[in-house]
Design brief:
The structure holds 2 protein chains of 2 kinds.
Chain A lengths: L4 H4 L6 H12 L19 H29 L5 H13 L12 H32 L1 H14 L4 H12 L2 H26 L3 H9 L4 H39 L4 H10 L3 H34 L1
Helix pairs in contact in A: 4-12, 5-6, 5-8, 5-10, 5-11, 7-8, 8-10, 10-11, 10-12, 11-12
Chain B lengths: L8 E12 L2 E13 L4 E5 L6 H9 L6 E6 L2 E2 L7 E4 L11 H13 L5 H14 L15 H14 L4 E5 L7 H18 L2 E6 L2 H7 L2 E5 L7 E6 L8 H4 L3 H17 L6
Parallel strand pairs in B: 3-8, 3-9, 6-7, 7-8
Antiparallel strand pairs in B: 1-2, 1-4, 4-5, 9-10
Classes of the chains: A mainly alpha, B alpha/beta.
Chain lengths: ~300, ~270
């Protein structure tokens, strides 16, 4: 994992794009390399800064564990030591199967990831082209605006009964929930990206008389890619949030169901382990997508 | 081919009014101008005088709200490959190499008739023309502003346009790079016998490069104020011209127009 997570997390859809466009537009200014002006925060300078960061992170984690142990002394929450010992047991055999409702944590995580993959994949398949259409045609965008505004804030759990009714099975219902909740960041970021393609680029397309297909592949797609990837990242994050909640309600195999099952068994230490696992998987998903985004956009720009 | 080479480009009584959210802005009013084949014409005026608007009209990026524009006796109805445009800010696509940017134009114009190898040769030749063969595999952000502008010129030239439209192509460059590119442009135009319309706000540049200088009045509702026939022979040498009486007189006339008759309080 990166040592500078706070620096690479790009919450705003335009952040990735901006960095590149400033370079593209101002590098020819009269000033020497005005575009490479330093960011407001001074950049880390060598070893000392690196140690300071690692120390701060270690201190943060240490204080967190101490606080946890302190709370555990007075409450019913298991203390860090016992959770750690239990975790060793669980992770020593993550892929066992003892019947449909008793499987290793590895299987549960994989089952959840599978649903997230399918739900997100469908959302991308529909959401990205939809985003291009909404970005390109003002009328369609105005048509869709009230519907998106209405549906976007709806909790995934509200969609589950509809999913169960339509699909009559738990797994497709939770996939449906993921689909409907993770499609919005994709649609909106892609559309925003298309709207913000610089007019200069479109003018180039027009004076060169490029065909619609060439405009799409040579100008629109590369210009929108950074926005689209931000959408993908947000969307995967949402999907991972949704799956835990959905599985708690629908049951089956999956990390959300596992949490609920352990609650029924009153194994609170397992629940805490599950929380860590969910967090770590979410973090890995996020970081790997940031990595892909940087590879793709950097590869395209330089 | 025009029947009338003296009127290769004809701008007849053209007006351009932009309307944005109900408010109308009249940028150009009753602009009339002819450009002869192989002539080099510059449009000069204060910022906001609509000279770039006029160029965009010639490029076909916008349509006039009044009047007619003809190229070789045909109405200008939109952008076309016979008009190469060089933008003020180079407008290279950052995800394509220099060669890729030029190739985009080459493919469009010659792609249907020529092989991949021939297209690559054309791209290479265009980059060689502006002295950038060595930078062809580089991305725009890896080269200097002057080089980017040269790639922009190569992209326009590679289409073998009949008309070259330049929108303040050297405006963002330092004085030395600018002088160098002006000399290069003079050489290229002489070799290709292109018809050129160029927007500038630089008096020396206008006098050095042009056959005629079209001086525009201040906007809104800008129009052609005066047209100056430069009347200096070609090729021109900037050092020799510095002491040339005709050059100094042209310069004086343009300055007089810009800063006396069309003076602006704050530019």
């Amino acid at each position: 994992m990166s040592a500078l997570p706070s620096r690479v997390v790009v919450a705003h859809p335009s952040a990735l794009k901006l960095s590149r466009r400033t370079v593209a537009n101002t590098a020819d200014g009269p000033g020497p390399k005005a575009s490479q002006a330093p960011s407001p925060r001074p950049s880390p300078t060598g070893e000392g800064e690196w140690f300071r960061r690692v120390f701060a992170m270690a201190l943060g984690i240490g204080l967190f564990v101490v606080g946890w142990a302190f709370v555990a002394k007075f409450g019913r929450i298991p203390d860090p030591g016992s959770v750690f010992r239990e975790a060793l047991v669980i992770f020593s055999d993550p892929f066992y199967r003892k019947g449909p409702n008793d499987q290793g944590i590895g299987w549960n995580v994989l089952a959840s990831l599978g649903r997230v993959g399918v739900g997100f994949g469908l959302a991308a398949l529909v959401g990205i082209p939809l985003g291009f259409l909404l970005g390109r045609f003002r009328f369609l965008s105005d048509m869709a605006a009230p519907i998106i505004a209405l549906l976007k804030p709806v909790s995934p759990l509200a969609w589950l009964p509809i999913g169960l009714l339509v699909f009559k099975a738990a797994s497709p219902a939770s996939i449906f929930g993921i689909f409907i909740c993770s499609i919005w960041p994709l649609v909106m970021n892609t559309a925003a990206g298309v709207r913000q393609v610089p007019q200069d680029y479109m003018n180039v397309a027009r004076v060169l008389n490029l065909s619609e297909w060439k405009v799409f592949t040579s100008i629109l797609l590369p210009a929108v890619l950074p926005y689209m990837l931000t959408g993908v990242r947000l969307s995967i994050g949402v999907a991972w949030l949704v799956i835990v909640a959905a599985e708690m309600l629908t049951g089956g195999v999956g990390i959300g169901f596992w949490v609920w099952d352990e609650w029924n068994n009153l194994k609170v230490d397992h629940i805490i382990i599950a929380i860590f696992v969910i967090g770590v998987v979410g973090l890995v998903l996020e970081q790997s997508l940031i990595f892909v985004a940087r590879k793709l956009t950097h590869g395209a720009a330089a | 081919m025009s029947n009338n080479p003296g009127r290769y480009i004809q701008v007849e009584n053209v007006g351009m009014t932009f309307s944005k959210r109900g408010a109308a802005f009249e940028a150009l009013r009753a602009v009339s101008l002819d450009v002869a084949k192989s002539e080099f014409v510059t449009l000069i005026g204060h910022s906001g005088c609509g000279k770039s608007t006029l160029l965009n009209l010639l490029a076909g990026l916008i349509r006039p709200t009044q009047g007619h524009m003809l190229l070789a006796d045909k109405e200008i109805a939109g952008p076309g490959p016979e008009r190469g445009v060089v933008f003020q800010n180079h407008s290279l696509l950052p995800w394509l190499t220099c060669a890729g940017n030029v190739m985009l134009a080459v493919e469009r114009v010659f792609g249907a008739r020529q092989t991949k190898a021939q297209l690559r040769d054309r791209t290479g030749a265009a980059l060689a023309l502006v002295g950038l063969s060595a930078a062809s595999a580089k991305y725009p952000e890896e080269i200097s502003g002057g080089m980017k502008q040269r790639v922009g010129i190569a992209r326009a030239l590679a289409m073998e346009p009949k008309v070259l439209l330049l929108d303040e192509p050297f405006g963002a460059l330092d004085a030395l790079t600018r002088a160098h590119l002006q000399d290069e442009l003079m050489g290229i135009v002489a070799r290709t016998a292109s018809t050129v319309v160029m927007v500038t706000h630089d008096v020396d540049e206008a006098v050095l490069l042009s056959d005629r200088i079209v001086m525009m009045t201040n906007g809104p509702a800008a129009t052609v104020g005066e047209v100056l026939e430069v009347g200096l022979g070609k090729p021109r040498d900037r050092l020799a011209l510095a002491a040339n009486a005709r050059y100094i007189e042209c310069r004086r006339q343009v300055l007089e127009f810009l800063y006396s008759r069309q003076a602006r309080q704050a530019a």
